[in-house]
Amino acid sequence: MSKKIITTPNAPAPIGPYNQAVLINGTLYTSGQIPIDPKTGKLVQDSIEAETKQVMENMKAVLAAADMTFENVVKTSIFISDMHNFSKINDVYSEYFDDATAPARETVEVANLPKFVNVEISMIAIEGA
Question: Which 3 state secondary structure label does DSSP give 43?
Fold first, then answer.
């Protein structure tokens, strides 16, 4: 059993004692991504749709760094600051997955998220899935 740390400059750098993702025995565990533009280091907060798109693009970069795509994702966790944004977040999220093979998922409303953003998403992906 070997643990491989996954990092990419195409997603925001960790701001604490964690990594963007860890690959172990063919399973990738990603850290939560928030809407930070990795090129500028600034938060994307134009709209909930723009925030969600940035989060998904960050996640796409992390998956790519592990030679995976959204097709490999088997589980997603979505944390949102306001459940009233669920349908808007879901609309953007759905652009990245095929309904027939979409992963298992939970969406949870929370009191606050890092940097007081409105959405954070983490994923579990499997090689060859």
Answer: strand
Half-sphere exposure of 1 toward its Cβ, with a 13 Å CA cutoff?
3
By C-alpha distance, which of 89, 66, 88 is closest to 77?
Answer: 89
Q: What are the distances in angstroms from CA 24 to CA 18, 34, 49, 63, 128?
A: 15, 23, 32, 14, 14
Q: What is the pLDDT of residue 77?
A: 98
Give the number of other Cβ atoms within 10 Å of residue 40's Cβ.
8
What domains are there in the chain, each with its CATH number?
Answer: 3-126 (3.30.1330.40)
Give the Cα separation of 86 and 83 in Å (integer). Answer: 5
β-pairing, 119-126 vs 21-24, is unpaired
Q: What is the pLDDT of residues 96-122, one digit of tens each?
A: 999 999 999 999 999 999 999 999 999
